[in-house]
Design goal:
Layout (H helix, E strand, L loop, with lengths): L7 H20 L8 E2 L2 E2 L8 H12 L4 H18 L1 H4 L8 H6 L2 E6 L5 E6 L8 H6 L2 H22 L10 E6 L9 H17 L4 E7 L3 H10 L5 H4 L2 E3 L5 H5 L31 E5 L4 E8 L4 E10 L3 E9 L7 E9 L3 E7 L3 E9 L5 E11 L8
Helix pairs in contact: 1-2, 1-3, 2-3, 7-8
Length: 385
């Protein structure tokens, strides 16, 4: 939000917080090493357009109460000093490689408004002994939290900007699949501590917390730790059942930026599709009907690569090549099967024709079909022999 978009009362609160912060930093001799935050100088005499962005985060977290915002900022500065946050980025070591290997947290793409998206996946802790090894003691849990703080600080450095008009917060997706079993109690405890730590020390750094693959049992569990959250934080929580994951993520993220794990088209180190050639087309499928998506092959001796996903799943799917030459035979590329995930396939075509992707919807619910394709000239391997 730009300064000119603030209400008069909000502008007054911002000016008030600026003044109170300067008085604190100049009058307290112990605050000399607390004069910057995330690389932004906090002393107003050090003119920096990013300062308002930082201060507004604390003001929004405290409903534009300047006194409460200052106290929160002071606590945050003291915590940062005591926790040694500035030195955490330099403390990376091989001892944390098991946490990185788990793939519990990673950045992947951007949402529709340009916010980077952070994914948190805890089911990898279900590997034999891994949960207890990495989170089973007070010391190991603390190591995980420090690792998570370091990841947050790296994300702020690499993906966020405090310049006016740029993204200064991220969208967070938290995958709760298989996280409520008795063997995962350490994960739940660590997650509670992580949420509380970020709420206290990283205000307004998350635009939404989208919890996906939420079981019915989780709603009861959520009620247990929801009192730890402020009303503003609660308003940013979205809970999604497994059948609605892709549909919900599409409200916030373009399909090309949703990982294929969640029904999207984004793949790590994708060598086939890029931002320039990766835009998806959309078709609709009524309940109890069949849709055929046709992709033309206009040149012979090419390889066609295609992606397809159906929001809501629960459809039958097959792939078939129909040549233009009436004397050639149709080729069944993929026999009919239930489509339960985003699919990528490729096939070499020696002649022109059409690739027919047949989707049958046996439910009464309307479905959304997304697909994309590309062709590339190919020399068959047998020609090289």
């Amino acid at each position: 939000m730009a300064l000119e978009d603030l209400k008069p009362s909000e502008k007054n609160a911002l000016f008030d917080l600026r003044l109170k912060l300067q008085n604190f930093l100049t009058s307290d001799p112990t605050s000399s090493n607390l004069s910057s935050l995330w690389g932004v100088p906090l002393l107003h005499s050090q003119s920096n357009p990013c300062l308002d962005t930082v201060l507004l985060k604390f003001l929004r977290a405290r409903d534009f109460n300047a006194d409460e915002s200052l106290r929160m900022l002071q606590r945050r500065l003291r915590w940062r000093e005591e926790y040694g946050v500035d030195g955490i980025l330099e403390q990376e070591s091989d001892s944390d490689s098991d946490l990185d290997f788990c793939g519990t947290t990673y950045m992947c793409g951007f949402d529709r408004e340009g916010h980077p998206v952070c994914y948190n996946v805890f089911r990898s802790f279900r590997q034999s002994g891994l949960c207890r090894k990495t989170l089973g003691t007070k010391g190991s849990c603390e190591r995980f939290l420090r690792w998570r703080v370091r990841f947050m600080e790296k994300g702020i450095q690499e993906f966020l900007s405090f310049e006016p008009g740029k993204a200064s917060a991220m969208l967070q997706v938290i995958d709760l699949k298989d996280s409520l079993g008795s063997s995962m109690k350490e994960v739940r405890s660590a997650m509670e501590r992580m949420i509380k730590l970020f709420q206290d020390n990283y205000p307004e750094f998350v635009v939404k917390n989208i919890f996906v693959n939420v079981s019915f049992r989780y709603y009861t569990y959520h009620a247990l730790f929801s009192p730890l959250l402020t009303p503003r934080t609660k308003s940013k929580f979205v809970f999604v059942r497994p059948s609605k994951v892709t549909e919900t993520l599409l409200k916030y993220i373009n399909l090309e930026n949703i990982p294929n794990t969640y029904g999207g088209f984004k793949r790590e180190n994708d060598e086939e599709f890029s931002a320039e050639n990766g835009k998806a087309s959309e078709a609709s499928l009524k309940g109890g009907s069949i849709a055929i998506v046709e992709i033309a092959i206009t040149e012979p001796r090419v390889t066609l690569v295609w992606d397809i996903t159906v929001v809501g799943w629960e459809v039958m799917y097959k792939e078939e090549f129909k040549p233009d030459d009436e004397f050639s035979y149709n080729i069944l590329i993929q026999e009919e099967r239930k489509l339960e995930q985003s699919m990528r396939n490729s096939f070499y075509f020696n002649e022109t024709g059409k690739l027919a992707l047949t989707i049958e919807n046996k439910t009464f619910k309307k479905k959304r079909i997304f697909y994309r394709s590309k062709t590339k000239p190919t020399i068959p391997s047998y020609n090289l022999l």
